[in-house]
Amino acid sequence: HPRSEALEEIRALEPFDRGWYAGPVGWIGADASEFAVGIRSGLVRGQKLALFSGAGLVAGSVPDEEWAETEQKIADFTGMFGLEQGHAAR
Q: Which end of the chain is less enclosed by CB atoms within 10 A, N or C?
């Protein structure tokens, strides 16, 4: 999809703002630079923490396995903070 159509589809399907999720994360130095797609991120607003996670899908991806991996990434964060894991929108 062209970018504008993809963004429209995401807005129609997802009940939340992605914020910086899936945006470029990296650094630039005098002799080198490195960037990646941020597929794990968190947002703190007051007393609330929203965690975002995703997977890199390829032709051979198995959807249920990718979903389990995504949930495990979130569980790693919630466990680190001693929090219960909520349910993700699928």
A: C
